[in-house]
Design brief:
The complex is a heterodimer.
Chain A: E1 6-8, E2 21-23, H1 24-34, E3 41-45, H2 49-60, E4 64-70, H3 74-84, H4 88-103, E5 108-110, E6 112-118, E7 125-131, E8 137-146, E9 149-152, E10 156-158, H5 161-165, E11 170-173, E12 178-181, H6 209-223, H7 229-254, H8 262-265, E13 272-274, E14 279-280, H9 281-289, H10 295-302, H11 315-324, H12 329-332, E15 344-345, H13 346-350
Helix pairs in contact in A: 1-2, 2-4, 3-7, 6-7
Chain B: E1 3-10, H1 14-25, E2 30-33, H2 42-45, E3 49-50, H3 60-73, E4 80-81, E5 84-88, H4 91-106, E6 111-115, H5 116-122, E7 132-136, E8 140-141, H6 147-157, E9 161-163, E10 170-173, E11 178-182, E12 185-194, H7 200-207, E13 214-223, E14 233-236, E15 242-245, E16 251-254, E17 260-262, E18 267-269, H8 272-285, E19 293-304, E20 311-314, E21 321-325, H9 330-345
Parallel strand pairs in B: 1-2, 1-12, 2-9, 5-14, 12-21
Antiparallel strand pairs in B: 3-8, 4-8, 5-7, 6-7, 10-11, 11-12, 13-16, 13-19, 14-15, 15-16, 17-18, 20-21
Helix pairs in contact in B: 1-6, 1-9, 3-9
Chain lengths: 366, 366
């Protein structure tokens, strides 16, 4: 069973490679596991509830949040309310966080996004600008804000790399956060014996995750002959009903955080997209203009995606630039997953060995 | 509506692209259709070794000319002339090496046999205990990732109608020409070339003239960027290792160890046992690799004939349909043999003999 969670979706912004810029997920991890503040005066940028929860963590840990910036307008939030209200627990939690931040006087910018992050050696300020309902820059109105750290992220995508390595079919589903495994209602993939659960099966939030895990486990038990069909139906039935409610909240929230190519299309040519080797937006755009249509062809042409993380950080931006050139995400595809997925010292794989331990099959060319 | 050409090339790897260029330069109106984008198969994922030391003897004359063409392409394909070393660590390996390299030298490759001490003077990072080595100064490598970009530019400049993301659903030869059915409609030409590498087997079956092709699934690995460890292309006497360090510091590890997979799904899988043997051999030869982190391992599909000799000529029993595939060391040789193939289809006498597939269809001698 794969329960590999989600990966954060990053959109490049001028200056986002400066020290002091961290992902929302990384910030949450730093705060929750080590109580470390990303900075003293922190700008928190991102659509949806996760940015708010990170802002709350910062305030609770004694930091100052100089701005919360969400490209979604207040109207978009209001439209999502009815679906969110079907899961009152989560809605109440998020509302309480929001109220607490408002009480502290944290400035909220709804319908704004980051236009640039500034600094010489590290972050010293950011420029916010108004955006339209597609998250494209709107007008010339900008607001400079002093900050020594920026926590930024634009939602989550299922972590599909293991599904890819195992050959499971995937499809592009924006409401699931992007590419997600194709699963049946029992959480089964098309690879016999391979099940998916949690956000890796389609981002639907923490509330829905236990339900998908439970159904996947019950399906595995059924498929292994450890459970009879009637018991399976009874046990999964109740879970499915709870799941439907949790998922409707999750999807209402992920609606704010779906992949949005327009939020990348405007970035200036000099913006670094592939951080590992300083490949800029204009280099990717030039490759696309010269005929690249698939993300793996873009990788071959520019090296974008060949860094130590396997392309998790730049994949969404690269795909968005292709999408802005008129190609469909289904055609654009995903970076091919490459073992070992995370960098691994050679010695960890080779272990201790003698020359005589190496088997020499007949080479094809000798 | 049917679109007509003088020639259609099916397959946009090195073979098809080089043949299409020659056909266009010979004055023909040429269409090239490729199921994905150019050079996404073996042409774009091979280890980039351009070394006479790893070539089969009968193909050395072709490889020497292919090498010159890559050299001429230069920076556009990341060509580097570094020299190459093949190393032997036992007396048995040294004897086999001397024999094989002498045969290659007699075929025209400027390879010299040198002592182990001389080899370590060239590459101090190699493990002590070298018994013997062979050296070829006029050897090097290119960056196979750039194959697609390079040929797309050249094909367009030559006026070839490059149709990417256009799979040939059916190839139908008849007395007066060949029809190639694609999702965008049928293409028609007086002659066509099948240059689809590992995909040629299934396509030849569709055509009704199955070619006796075996599949090889070659493994390649790359490390993260590390300080300079080697300057030349290093190979092992067994023929089961190639090592090179790119300008950016990554070390590419090849040797054609076998993975698993199928061209039908484009899914190639790493086999842990062969990968570890490959990495052990690499680390044995270059001990400091142990500290390097492995970033990615992948596979490329290679087609091979029972006699390891290329298929390059008319499809057996057909006048208008040609095939070019199963060229061992096809990356090195491709630009040249593709050109010869173009000449054959232009009705010219190729300057070097091609490899008529009919030999594999003759009745076995009694």
């Amino acid at each position: 069973m794969l329960a590999t969670g989600a990966i954060e979706r990053f959109y490049p912004r001028p200056g986002w490679t400066l020290p002091g810029v961290v992902g929302l997920g990384a910030a949450a991890l730093m705060l929750k596991t080590s109580g470390v503040l990303p900075g003293r005066h922190v700008a928190v940028v991102g659509p949806g509830a996760f940015a708010i929860s990170v802002a709350k963590l910062i305030v609770d840990a004694g930091g100052e949040v100089v701005a919360i910036c969400d490209p979604n307008s207040l109207r978009a939030w209001a439209e999502a309310l009815p679906a969110m209200a079907r899961y009152p627990g989560s809605l109440a939690r998020d509302s309480a966080r929001l109220a607490a931040l408002a009480l502290k006087g944290v400035p909220m910018y709804r319908g704004w996004d980051v236009r640039a992050i500034h600094g010489e050696r590290d972050v010293d300020s950011i420029t916010l600008g108004r955006v339209d309902d597609q998250w494209r820059p709107l007008g010339q109105r900008e607001r400079p804000i002093a900050a020594d750290a920026v926590c930024i992220g634009y939602g989550f995508a299922p972590a599909t790399d293991l599904y890819q390595l195992l050959g499971a079919a995937r499809r592009y589903e924006p409401t699931f956060g992007g590419w997600a495994p194709v699963l049946d209602r029992g959480q089964r993939s098309d690879v016999p014996g391979l099940y998916g659960a949690g956000d890796s099966a389609g981002v639907s939030g923490a509330a829905a995750a236990p339900g998908t895990g439970r159904i996947a486990a019950l399906s595995a038990a059924l498929d292994l002959g450890c459970l009879d069909a009637a018991t399976y139906e009874r046990k999964t039935g109740a879970t499915r009903r709870r799941l439907a409610r949790a998922a409707s909240f999750g999807f209402a929230v992920t609606r704010f955080t779906q992949p949005n190519a327009a939020a990348v299309g405007w970035v200036p040519d000099h913006t670094i997209v592939f951080r590992c080797e300083d490949i800029r937006a204009d280099e990717l755009r030039a490759a696309i203009a010269a005929g690249v249509q698939e993300i793996n062809a873009l990788k071959a042409a520019t090296r974008c995606g060949m860094g130590p993380c396997g392309g998790r950080v730049c994949a969404e931006a690269a795909a968005a630039l292709l999408e802005c050139a008129g190609f469909a995400r289904e055609r654009i595809g995903q970076f091919t997953a490459r073992a070992p997925l995370r960098p691994l010292p050679l010695s960890a794989l080779t272990g201790s060995f003698d020359y005589g331990d190496i088997p020499f099959p007949q080479a094809a060319d000798t | 509506m049917t679109t007509s050409f003088d020639a259609i090339v099916v397959g946009g790897g090195v073979m098809g692209a080089a043949a299409a260029l020659q056909l266009a330069e010979g004055g023909m109106r040429v269409a090239l259709c490729e199921a994905r984008q150019l050079a996404m198969g073996a042409s774009g994922v091979n280890a980039g070794t351009l070394s006479m030391q790893t070539k089969r003897v009968p193909l050395i004359p072709y490889a020497l000319r292919g090498y010159e063409l890559w050299k001429r392409a230069g920076d556009a394909v990341g060509f580097k002339e570094t020299g190459s070393l093949t190393v032997a660590y036992t007396q048995g390996e040294a004897e086999g090496l001397a024999q094989r390299m002498t045969a290659r030298r007699n075929a025209g490759a400027p390879i010299e046999l040198i002592s182990g001490t001389a080899a370590r003077a060239l590459e101090p990072g190699l493990r002590e205990g070298l018994v013997a080595a062979s050296y070829c100064a006029a050897d090097g490598y290119a960056n196979s990732s750039l194959t697609g970009v390079y040929y797309r530019g050249r094909l367009r400049a030559a006026g070839v109608d490059v149709r990417e993301l256009t799979p040939a659903r059916a190839i139908v030869p008849d007395d007066t020409g060949v029809t190639v059915n694609t999702p965008a409609g049928p293409l028609r030409a007086a002659r066509a070339l099948l240059a689809t590498g590992a995909w040629a087997k299934a396509m030849s079956e569709q055509i009704g003239a199955p070619l006796p092709i075996r599949l090889r699934v070659n493994t390649v690995s790359v490390t993260e960027r590390v300080p300079t460890l080697i300057k030349t292309v290093v190979a092992h006497a067994s023929g089961l290792l190639t090592l090179k360090q790119a300008v950016n510091g990554t070390v590419l590890i090849g040797g054609a160890w076998q993975g698993r997979g199928s061209p039908d799904t484009w899914q190639g899988d790493i086999v842990p046992e062969t990968l570890i043997a490959n990495l052990r051999l690499a680390q044995y030869v270059l001990p400091r690799l142990a500290e390097a982190r492995l970033l990615r391992c992948w596979t490329g599909f290679e087609a091979q004939t029972p006699d390891s000799v290329p298929l390059a000529g008319p499809m057996p029993g057909m006048r208008n349909l040609f095939v070019l595939c199963c060229v061992r060391s096809g990356y090195t040789i491709g630009p040249y043999i593709g050109r010869l193939m173009g000449d054959l289809m232009l009705g010219r006498e190729p300057e070097m003999p091609l490899f008529d597939p009919v030999r594999l269809f003759k009745a076995p001698a009694k």
